[in-house]
Write a structure and sequence with these properties.
It is a single chain. The protein is an alpha/beta fold. Helices cover about 40% and strands about 20% of the residues. The protein contains 12 helices and 17 strands. Strand 3 and strand 4 (about 20-25) form a beta hairpin. Helix 3 (about 75-85) packs antiparallel against helix 4 (about 95-105). The longest helix is centred in the middle third of the chain and has 41 residues, at about 110-150. The structure holds 5-S-methyl-1-O-phosphono-5-thio-D-ribulose. 5-S-methyl-1-O-phosphono-5-thio-D-ribulose binds near residues 53, 54, 162, 253 and 328.
Length: about 350
Amino acid sequence: MLVNDSHLTTIWVDETDQEIKIIDQRLLPHELSIVTLSTVKDVEFAIREMQVRGAPLIGVTAAFGMYVAALEDSSIEFLNKAADFLIESRPTAVNLSWAIKKIKLEISNIDQQNRAEHIFNIAKKIREEDISACSKIGDYGFELIKNVYDKKNSTVNILTHCNAGWLAAVDWGTALAPIFKAKKNKIPIHVWVDETRPRNQGFNLTAWELINENIDCSLIVDNVGGHLMQHDQVDMCIVGTDRTALSGDVCNKIGTYLKALAAYDNNVPFYVSAPISSIDFNIRDGISEIPIEKRDPKEVSSIWGVDKNKNIKTISIVPEKSKSINYAFDVTPSKYISKLITEKGVVDANEISIKGLKD
Ligand code: MRU
């Protein structure tokens, strides 16, 4: 999508030196910094420290991580160790293990001297497929927005949580893809952007994406959505998912569940948008089976931003010696989800429909 009117993706292979490049998302929206991933340690750091984040992008980055690992040492022993090392970097987004398992399976019969090149080709394919899946998600989700517009004939108000835009994937994004397509099709839209404490992906990333695409948006703190829904100011919610269980339960950024409850209470459609690579076909129940990442409590007790001289700063916002706990995700039970938007179409959040998405 666009950044200062130029097209950019979140991860790419540099045409001149063939190195893997990413945007360091920790610095957005204040600095656009490009980083090179040369070793498996660089890749593990990028995922763990959230230079890259968002389930689809974590999967694509991990695939390139296996490639740079193979450049270091292409023995199966080393690659297995690299795979375990990468899988442990973040526990919740299933795309990470999905991409690594796919690579391990596809290289099982490949000679050692050809392994790195083979993994490189698989990683590039996973990247391309993610772009195509997100674009299709955008097309299917656009129809849902258009239906609302056709009925109401005025601006469609959409609420989103966290960042499930192109920064969370390679391009287009998941929850924001239908919004980008609606804009391109000239449907008047307005987006309510949840702040998404503690890392503020809504303010820092979603707002930045929407502003770069000239999409009207208003930034709200995390507890405003319920009030807006009670006053008919939200036509639909669209969020992403880091892992969807067979039951249709979805695990997404902390706070998603409360938005779904408010939407249900106010008859606001609640859509969850994601590629099929975010479905965990081995897990039936989201609440008991999806591992929830607990992150550094410092993310809760401090806040990050720029001062009036544009210097980036982190400041404490709690009493000294206070204790904080940082759960990064929660699970929204399927009964609160109107539909899942996937690259194969819009489906019900239940086991029969989800099994139908498997190849
Ligand atoms: O911790 P993050 O920023 O990696 O989490 C990402 C999310 O939870 C997003 O909300 C997103 O919907 C899932 S990935 C498209």
